[in-house]
Every structure is written in C-alpha cells, then in structure tokens.
Write a structure and sequence with these properties.
EC number: 3.2.1.31
Structural class: alpha/beta
Strand content: 25-35%
Distance between the termini: 32 Å
Largest sheet: 8 strands, parallel, barrel
Family: Belongs to the glycosyl hydrolase 2 family.
CATH superfamily of the largest domain: Glycosidases
GO biological process, one term: glucuronoside catabolic process
Pfam families: Glyco_hydro_2 (PF00703), Glyco_hydro_2_C (PF02836), Glyco_hydro_2_N (PF02837)
Strand order of the largest sheet: 23-24-25-26-27-28-29-30
CATH class of the largest domain: Alpha Beta
CATH architecture of the largest domain: Alpha-Beta Barrel
Low-confidence stretches: 360-366, 600-606
Protein name: Beta-glucuronidase
C-alpha cells in the first residue's frame, strides 16, 4: 500500500487536529447518523487514555467515537477521493455522511477507502469513526474479554505495555486521478562487479502504459525503463549503508507524462544476507547495537509525534546505536521514513505479542492452560496473525532500513502446537518477501534443546533476563547461566544470535554503594556483565537492550508507574548507564566505520 503523497498529479489534506469525542454509552444508538452532541474534543493523532484527567476514559473497555467535518476541496472535481487512516487501535469502523464505508481490524497498519461517491467537491462531509480497544483470541495482539460481578466489562491482555487506543496516527483525505498507480514494489541486488540492479513491479488501476525513471540525490537520471515490471541497471551505485544512508528517487508515471498519475518512491540500494553465524549488509558483517523501543510518551500514549521522533533518533545517534526493533507492533511509517534517511537499521515486528499464556499467567494472572488450542490461540488467531504479516509487508517492503521481519514476540515456542501454528506463517512471510531474513523473539522457557520452531527461522533472537527475573541480584551466577545458554545455541545452530531483550528495572536517581536491584549501579553492572559474555561468543551478532526508555504498563505490584527498564526515562532523560553505553557503542561504530572505509568496494561509500 502506497503512502499518500502530494505531487503534480496527487493532492493531500491532513485531518489531524481536534475531533469530537465520546464514550459509547454517552451517545445514542447510531451516532454516525448526525453530529454527535459531546463537550469533549480529542487530539488526533494520540491515544485518548491519558489526555483527559478521567479514570473512566483512561480505563475504558469497548467502543469510543470520533467525529469531524471536512470540506472537500472544490478543485477535486473529477478526482478519485480516498479517506486514509494510518492506524486505528485496535478495530476501526468508519462512516461517511451516515454510511458505513470501512471496517479494519489490527491497530498498527493503515487502511483506506474510496469515498468519491460520497464526497462532492466543495461540500462538507461528516466522518465518524468507532474505535474498539477490546482484545480477544481472534485479535492480534490477543486477549480475553469478561464480565465482573457488578456487570462491568473486564479485559485481560498478555502484553506488558499499556493497552493504549485511539486514532494513533494521521488521518488524510487524498485525491488521485481515476486511473492511478495502486502499488510499487522494489528490490535491489548487486553482481560481483559492483553493478546494482533495481527490480520494480508497478500495479495500476487500468493496466496503462508505465514509465519509470531513477534519479540520484542530485536529481540526475541514472536509469529508466518502460513497462510495469522490469530491472534498472545502475553502474557505480552509491549504496544505502548503516550510518550512511543514500536514497535514489524512483519516479513512476502512468500514461501521459503531463496528465497521467505519478508517484515518487525513495529507493535505497542495499543487500541483506545471513551467512552461517554472520548477518551481512552489502556483503559486510553487521553487528546490531541498540534497543527494543515502544511508541510511548506522556499524555500522548502511542500517538505519533514528529518532535518525539526526531529527538529519539538524536538520542540513538548520541549513544552510538545503529538499530532498533519495532517492539511489539509496526511503528508509524514516518519512523521508517526517518530511519531510511538517517541510516538506522530496523527489525520490523508484527503485533503478535502475548501468545504465551502460561508465561503471562505467572506474571499477569490466569490459570495454566495450553497456548495453542481451539479455545486459545486457534486457527482464527493464526488467520489474524497472517493478515497482520500481509499488511506489515505490504506497507514496509520498500524501506531499505528494514532488514528483517520479526513475526512474533515471545510465543510459547516450546509448547505442543507451536510448529503447526507458526510454520504456515513463516512460509507466508517468505512468499511475500523472499529478500529479507525472518525471525521471532524467543522467550526463556524455550531453550536450544526444547524450542520447536527456531530451525525454521534465519536468525536466533533471544530475550533473556538472567540476573533479573532469574538469579535476581546475583550477577556472578547469572553470568555463568547466560554464557552456558548462549554457547548451547551457538553449538546447536549455525545461525547468528541477536540478544533482542536484556535489562533491569531501574529507578532514576536511586544510587547505592553496594549495587542491588532497582539501583542505577545495578543497571550498570548488569549490562556490563552481559557485554562481557557477548564479547566472548563469536556467534552473537548484536545487542538490543530492553528498553530505550521507560514506558507505561497496566497497574501491578511489579510495575510502579510503568516499566522502568529504560536506559532513558519516559521523558528521555539519560540514566547513569547511558554514558557507559555511549562509550562502548561509539567505539564499536567508529571501528566499523574504519573497517568499511578500508574495504569499500566501488559505489560503497561517498
């Protein structure tokens, strides 16, 4: 799915801003049929939960309503008019002028609907959205809805971050020509001489004539071709590299060059490969440094914010990180656009988190029962997971920053039924995109000697908390156990190992002469221990700390105002360990840059 853009043939209107807002019980049975009567307005994009000083809104379970009027530009006569939502969490039903026009399940990927027949140029249209935050075994992420003794609804969810909901990302009204470009897919390869090939496939609404032109950053044409599919040859290409992004522009034109539709897609030329226990980008070994992150900030919850985006990337650069994982859902596409332009490597993850009933049962409550069964993670859940994979790849397939798909976080991969559940999903991911490695984040109950699915994946991603959830406070014993497990994985599988989670809850400002859990000194000693072990095991090809910043969770006795495992506080202030990480990671980055400069092939640097 192409992200909307303004061009000589396309137009775009943002619908971000303040929308009328109400809880379901506060409006009539059919609020979409007219203007809602409500005193509240909610900002878009944002979660609604923390905006109001109201516990009923913060903890609401079920449907809320958003509504606003928009005037269709009078210049859009004869145009195809589309209403697009970048994310509605978790389920969205859209009405235009009282008519239901769209329904989408999945809270982190976009959807759009053609409303040309309902949107007369120069006239107002009324847009109403029902947003449902309930999670069941048929949703991803999954959950369980129940009823308390007093008749109020209850929501169990198995992921350890707050169930923020709302219109989290931008809403747009867009206009294109009736005959238009529907999609573009680009992949890149290189041959032994350093020449690059840009392979393209264009999907149009009418099968009309297509011309593509590739231009470099100086706007010079470097290759062109006619036809909806083909290959462009680029001699002496400038590669997209970690820390040194370079983007070409691929202009796609449908029909006549003056009157036809056009779309411009940024293209980064780079290759990704797993070879034995190495992860290669552009045939060079790549070692991941960085974090698992969250879309999470005070007041706005999971709402996208460009200020926060730029500041977070500035902190990634300051600390020397080269990568992050979109834990535990697809992030806003603006995040990937920024990563593309700034050379940050991304592991792109679906929203399949919480598929481990017994692990969550021990921490968050609930009886022990099979994770994979007709009553729990069923064929219906798997279908929803598959749809999430389809939508993730459809949106993000062209981003050079995305080097790997992560199709689940901490599933019960040692439980009976795991292989039957995940094998079709792995096959689907490879069918949709054979160019990128596929992984999942493994939870500690699934070890190298009992995990049932890891052989199907390309990279071993491990979430481990020796010294925190196990061997709490005993880092000497934790170091022995960590090294023993990593050596077991390295000996059992000829695959790269990436530690995608490791960390400890740390209260900013809590200092101790003798380090113990929750203190800043313990966080320093904990991470130093892990890094000593990583440095001793060649199969380890990366370290992504949990977490970039403190984040909000639901209330619980192990969570005081959220998860405190951040290297930065929730308002992005560095904890003491940040400068130690900066020293380690910037030295590694400088060393990698020196190696790259000394071994650069033609077109590999600039």
């Amino acid at each position: 799915m192409l992200k909307p853009q303004a061009s000589r043939s396309r137009d775009l209107r943002s619908l971000d801003g303040l929308w009328s807002f109400a809880l379901d019980h506060e409006v009539g049975d059919e609020p979409w049929r007219g203007r809602m009567v409500t005193p509240r307005q909610a900002p878009v994009p944002a979660s609604y939960n923390d905006v109001f000083a109201d516990a009923e809104i913060r903890d609401h379970i079920g449907v809320v309503w958003y509504q606003r009027e928009v005037v269709v530009p009078s210049t859009w006569t004869g145009r195809r008019i589309v209403l697009r939502f970048d994310a509605v969490t978790h389920t969205g039903t859209v009405f235009v002028n009282g008519e239901r026009v769209a329904h989408h399940e999945g809270g982190y990927t976009p959807f759009e609907v053609d409303i040309t027949s309902l949107a007369a140029p120069g006239e107002e249209v009324l847009v109403t959205v029902a947003v449902d935050n309930r999670l069941t075994s048929a949703t991803v992420p999954p959950g369980e809805v129940g009823t308390a003794e007093d008749g109020t609804p209850t929501q169990l969810y198995r992921h350890d971050f707050f169930n923020y909901a709302g219109l989290h990302r931008s809403v747009h009204l867009a206009a294109t020509a009736p005959d238009h470009i529907r999609d573009v897919t680009v992949t890149t390869t290189r041959d032994g001489s350093g020449t690059a090939s840009v392979h393209f496939a264009v999907d149009t609404s009418n099968g009309g004539d297509v011309r593509v032109v590739l231009r470099d950053e100086d706007r010079r044409e470097v290759a062109s071709a006619d036809g909806a599919t083909g290959t462009l040859t680029v001699t002496d290409p400038v590669l997209w590299q970690p820390g040194a992004a370079y983007l070409y522009d691929l202009e796609v034109v449908l029909g006549d060059g003056r009157d036809g539709d056009s779309y411009t897609l940024p293209v980064g030329i780079r290759t990704v490969e797993v070879r034995g226990q190495q992860f290669l980008i552009n045939d060079e070994p790549f070692y991941f440094t960085g974090f698992g992150k969250h879309e999470d900030a005070p007041f706005r919850g999971k709402g996208h914010d460009d200020v926060l985006l730029v500041h977070d990337f500035a902190l990634l650069d300051w600390i020397g990180a080269n990568s992050f994982r979109t834990s535990h859902y697809p992030y806003a596409e603006e995040v990937l656009d920024y990563a593309d332009r700034h050379g940050i490597v991304v592991i792109d993850e679906t929203a399949a988190v919480g598929m481990n009933i017994n692990m969550a049962g021990g921490i968050l409550g609930g009886a022990r029962k099979p994770t994979f069964s007709p009553e729990t993670m069923s064929d219906v859940t798997r279908d929803a997971t598959a749809q999430g994979i389809r939508e993730l790849i459809a949106r993000d397939k062209n981003h050079p920053s995305v080097v790997m798909w992560c199709i689940a976080n901490e599933p019960a991969s040692a439980e009976e039924g795991a292989r039957e559940y995940f094998e079709p999903l792995v096959d689907l991911t490879r069918e949709l995109d054979p160019t990128r490695p596929v992984t999942f984040a493994n939870q500690g109950d699934a070890r190298f000697d009992n995990d049932l699915i890891v052989d199907m994946f390309d990279v071993i991603c491990l979430n481990r908390y020796f010294g925190w959830y196990q061997q709490t406070g005993d880092l000497a014993r934790a170091e022995v156990e960590l090294e023993k497990e990593l050596l077991g994985w390295a000996a059992t599988y000829d695959k790269p190992i990436l530690m995608t989670e490791y960390g400890v809850d740390t209260v900013a400002g809590l200092h101790q002469a003798v380090p113990s859990p929750w203190s800043e000194e313990y966080q320093i000693d904990f991470l130093a221990m892990y890094h000593r072990v990583f440095d001793r095991i060649p199969a380890v090809q990366g370290e992504q700390i949990w977490n970039f910043a403190d984040f909000q969770t639901k209330a619980g006795i192990i969570r005081v105002d959220g998860n405190k495992k951040g290297v930065f506080t929730r308002d992005r202030r560095p904890k003491s360990v940040a400068r130690i990480l900066k020293s380690r990671w910037t030295a590694m980055r400088d060393a990698a840059a020196g190696i790259a400069a000394g071994t650069a092939t033609e077109g590999g640097d600039r």
